[in-house]
Amino acid sequence: MGVIRAEPARMTDWASRSIGAAWRAFDLQLAAYAALLAILGLVMAYTNSVEQGQEVLTGGTTFVRGLMWTGIAMIVFIVATAFDYKWLKTFAWPLYGAQVGLLALTLAIGGGVGGSSRWIALGPFDFQFSEIAKILMIVVLANYLGSRQGRLGSLPSILGACVLVGPPWLLVMLQPDLGTSLVLLAILGGMLFMSGASLRWMVALLAGVLATLPFIWTYVLRDYQKQRLTAFLDPSTDIQGAGYQLYQSQIAVGSGGWLGKGLTNGTQNQLDFLPVQESDFVGAIYFEELGFVGAIVLLLLFGALIWRLLVSGWRSKDPFGMMFAGGLAAMILFQLFVNLGMVIGIMPITGIPLPFVSHGGSSLISLAVGLGIVQSINIRQTRAEW
After folding, report:
1. C-alpha angle 216/222/224, rounded to 5°?
2. What angle do CA 370, 374, 380 make, to 5 degrees?
């Protein structure tokens, strides 16, 4: 009888050790860097909410909405971490169908600015499904590339990945959303590189894409998109038109100096000179109010976050885990580079948000899902102690 009574205790101790060993693999650094970047996003939402005589904590302000979306993102992150990522491999193809379906639905019934179809109203909220489509695309590509390890030197395998990205890319372009379409291509390129795909074939495909640019410029891009893409070359030629946004952004960045003007003291922000200062051009307000030192802090946090994602990928015993972490790192790095380049005038204006910092619930939720999946991969790579 004594042996029978001891067996449940032994099983409980083994389960406790296994769970403890798994959760010790939870990457606290990764979570901390993401949390600090989200806090910076809330700080910028606060400073963008401060106006003459306006109470920041009243409903409907950018700061209040930011708090709400951050709370939802924390819950989503916890759920995604607790979820066994291996099920994503099982349901990769249904998820791909859901991704295409959501983008097609957005195109059919979605709303936006200037006749675009980018958001779907969900009660009081507008959700941009193209943001979560980025994460679903990483899942699908991670499953595809991970199952073809050792065969990615062949052109058919690389073309297969390109074909997978094709339908979502086209649906996003039709919305039209040039920024997100470029992010999808960056995810594809980054994941092919991480998978060890043949550089010779990748360069050949890139040359093919570049050869189609004249066609895309003439028949795909709309006039306002062309104006945005060319305005960064010399915004002073059309300060009141296509170059206005970039011109005001450069004033904000240049006036920040070393230490910035201080939170809520930026003139471009408070005098409302800079359009979409809470989303696409939040970086300009950040540089104006926190200066060069604040910019260094921001870049160090992003660098540390991307490094931890790559470490998670390298440590993964599962090719899917390595591919997913690499894809998420490529997505964040590309958005960081293009957004900040856009703000200072070395990249065209494409409407790509600054991860964590730009105000937007869809972007924050998608990042929370992606980081939660990486943490799920981390804690399920630890072998149980028998």
Report:
1. 130
2. 145
pLDDT band at 189 (very low <50, low <70, confident <90, very high): very high
Relative orientation angle of helices 361-379 and 319-344, to the nearest 10 degrees: 150
Tokens representing residue 132 in the block: 């979560």
Rounded Cα distance between 31 and 21, Å, is 18
| Whole-number average pLDDT of the chain | 84
Peptide bond into 8 cis (omega under 30): no
pLDDT bucket at 192, cuts 50 / 70 / 90: very high
What three-state secondary structure class fits 111?
strand
Query: pTM, whole model, 2 decimals?
Result: 0.89
Cβ-based neighbour number of residue 54 at 10 Å: 9
Residue 10 pLDDT > 60, yes or no?
A: no
Q: At what angle do helices 282-315 and 319-344 cross, to 10 degrees?
A: 160
The span from the CA of 149 to the CA of 346, in Å, is 37
Return the pLDDT at 51: 63
Which DSSP string do the residues of 114-176 spell out, in sequence order?
TT---BEEETTEEE-HHHHHHHHHHHHHHHHHHTTTT-TTSHHHHHHHHHHHHHHHHHHHHTT
CB contact at 8 A, 349 and 342: yes
Closest by CA position to 277, among listed 288, 267, 269, 265: 269
Amino acid in the structure at residue 113: V
Q: For 197, what's the count of Cα atoms within 13 Å in the CB-facing half-sphere?
A: 28
CA distances (Å), origin 60, targets 73, 125, 129 = 18, 11, 22
Pairwise CA distance, residues 23 & 378, whole Å: 9
Q: What's the distance, Cα to Cα, between the start and end of the chain in Å?
A: 24
Per-residue confidence (pLDDT) for residue 218, from 0 to 100: 81
State residue 123 phi and psi, 5-degree precision. Answer: 65, -125
More confident call, 237 vs 82: 82
Average pLDDT of the residues in 220-249: 74
pLDDT in tens, 332-346: 999 999 999 988 888
